[in-house]
């Protein structure tokens, strides 16, 4: 496995363990670079910390004292730890460089990087790009929410293998030198304001994906997104637009249900297996990446006809007595659920709810054009009910949890309906992750 060579930092603090912190710590240990670990989980409950202490690494757990910054010239923080955290804030004040493990991964790369970000569609696009490159016999590697973190993946890279990375705003906010050969900006919608605090900070964090790109690199962006179209003007990369609006005819675009790349017909959207118009953004950007790697059109078309998506992302579960059931647990914000609703023409029985992040749900209710019934659950159920009242939508039930929501949704559905689990909220009021939430929904569906 590769290790860090000619690393410019002398003493590193790994702040927060979990998957990314553990991978960063292992890389630093294998590279013989001095470092220490600080993690909030108490030592007696922290197997990762126990492991590294047994290797002779200094470990401080259970709290975040400021003295851990003494002698440190680099902090590698868990992406989920915000900059307003006292320790991170103090590191910035002391001019200590703060990064995420993606930055460490960049020191190891010896092949092309495809980096993908956006408020919605990152995982689906990352997976589709990986499938396209694999079908083109390029032996690509993949890093992101699915599978291994970037540092682990890049350590296994050899012979110039392409690496396809899914990157969040949390990761991108803390990069310094990271520069992808191809960057994909899918969309920008209001999200994670509990972390970023302002929309401006969120947008600027996303844009860091192209900050270090040069005119030798490529930026693929959504021309239909006015925030992106305006913001990318500062990028030095070659830009390539995609559009699903039907009114823009440059780059790669959709026109009357057909996909064209710079005027050349590629595929009829009816032949694409991924459901929903919103997935066309993911498809268009993925096609451009594949073409940059000179993958033949026939190979691209074959993959698009067979690729059905990713677990928990508008995933078709099964048909129960004429009802088509979909698991979209990854829809952790309102815009993602609106896109899921718009993917169907059939009547929908919708299950929504989860962590209350302070959002109002009026925009969601305004898009209930074919939602015949809604079941709200969890911490945000009351706010959803209040939004329904303001929007004069009455076909609503409130329940406590996903199990009750699934039963109630089924009871209010008929053959020909779509049962759509697309929560529009984060999962953390009742679950550790959207995956755990989606897995429970899958189990409940199989019991219907």
From TrEMBL:
Enzyme class: ligase
Principal localisation: cytoplasm
Cell compartment(s), UniProt: Cytoplasm
Entry-linked Pfam families: Mur_ligase_C (PF02875), Mur_ligase_M (PF08245), MurD-like_N (PF21799)
The keyword Cytoplasm is assigned to this record: yes
GO biological process: cell division; cell wall organization; peptidoglycan biosynthetic process; regulation of cell shape
Keywords: ATP-binding, Cell cycle, Cell division, Cell shape, Cell wall biogenesis/degradation, Cytoplasm, Ligase, Nucleotide-binding, Peptidoglycan synthesis
Molecular function via GO: ATP binding; UDP-N-acetylmuramoylalanine-D-glutamate ligase activity
One cellular-component annotation, GO: cytoplasm
Domain Mur ligase C-terminal: from-to ranges: 312-425
Key word ATP-binding present: yes
Pathway info: Cell wall biogenesis; peptidoglycan biosynthesis
Binding site residues for ATP: 118-124
Reaction catalyzed: UDP-N-acetyl-alpha-D-muramoyl-L-alanine + D-glutamate + ATP = UDP-N-acetyl-alpha-D-muramoyl-L-alanyl-D-glutamate + ADP + phosphate + H(+)
Function summary: Cell wall formation. Catalyzes the addition of glutamate to the nucleotide precursor UDP-N-acetylmuramoyl-L-alanine (UMA).
Family as reported in the entry's similarity comment: Belongs to the MurCDEF family.
HAMAP family: MurD (MF_00639)
NCBIfam families from the UniProt entry: murD
Name of the protein this chain belongs to: UDP-N-acetylmuramoylalanine--D-glutamate ligase
């Amino acid at each position: 496995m590769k290790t860090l060579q000619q690393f410019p930092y002398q003493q590193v603090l790994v702040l927060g363990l979990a998957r990314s912190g553990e991978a960063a710590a292992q890389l630093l240990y294998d590279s013989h670079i001095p470092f220490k670990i600080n993690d909030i989980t108490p030592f007696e409950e922290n197997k990762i910390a126990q492991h590294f202490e047994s290797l002779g690494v200094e470990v401080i757990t259970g709290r975040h004292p400021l003295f851990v910054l003494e002698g440190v010239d680099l902090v590698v923080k868990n992406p989920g730890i915000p900059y307003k955290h006292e320790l991170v804030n103090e590191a910035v004040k002391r001019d200590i460089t703060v990064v995420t493990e993606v930055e460490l991964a960049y020191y190891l790369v010896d092949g092309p990087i495809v980096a993908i970000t956006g408020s919605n569609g990152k995982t689906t696009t990352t997976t589709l790009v990986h499938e396209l490159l694999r079908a083109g016999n390029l032996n690509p590697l993949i890093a992101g929410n699915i599978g291994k973190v970037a540092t682990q993946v890049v350590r296994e890279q050899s012979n110039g293998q392409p690496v396809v990375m899914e990157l969040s705003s949390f990761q991108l906010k803390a990069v310094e030198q990271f520069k992808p050969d191809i960057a994909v900006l899918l969309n920008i919608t209001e999200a994670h304001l509990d972390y970023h605090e302002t929309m401006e900070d969120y947008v600027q964090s996303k844009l860091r994906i192209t900050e270090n790109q040069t005119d030798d690199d490529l930026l693929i962006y959504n021309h239909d997104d006015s925030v992106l179209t305006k913001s990318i003007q500062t990028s030095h990369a070659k830009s390539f637009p995609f559009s699903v609006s039907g009114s823009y005819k440059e780059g790669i675009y959709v026109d009357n249900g057909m996909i064209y790349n710079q005027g050349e017909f590629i595929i009829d959207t009816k032949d694409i297996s991924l459901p929903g118009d919103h997935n066309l953004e993911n498809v268009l950007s993925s096609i451009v990446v594949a073409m940059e790697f000179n993958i033949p059109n026939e190979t691209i078309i074959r993959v698009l006809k067979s690729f059905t998506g990713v677990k928990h992302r508008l995933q078709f579960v099964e048909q129960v007595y004429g009802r088509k059931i979909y698991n979209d647990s990854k829809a952790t914000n309102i815009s993602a659920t609106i896109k899921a609703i718009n993917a169907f023409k059939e009547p929908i029985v919708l299950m929504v709810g989860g962590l209350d992040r302070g959002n109002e749900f009026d925009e969601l209710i305004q898009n209930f054009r074919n939602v015949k019934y809604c079941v709200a659950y969890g911490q945000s159920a009351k706010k959803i009910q209040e939004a329904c009242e303001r929007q004069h939508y009455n076909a609503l039930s409130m329940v406590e949890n996903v199990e009750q929501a699934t039963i109630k949704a089924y009871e209010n559905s008929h053959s020909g309906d779509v049962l759509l689990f697309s929560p529009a909220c984060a999962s953390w009021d009742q679950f550790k992750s959207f995956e755990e939430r989606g897995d429970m929904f899958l189990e409940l569906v199989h019991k219907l």
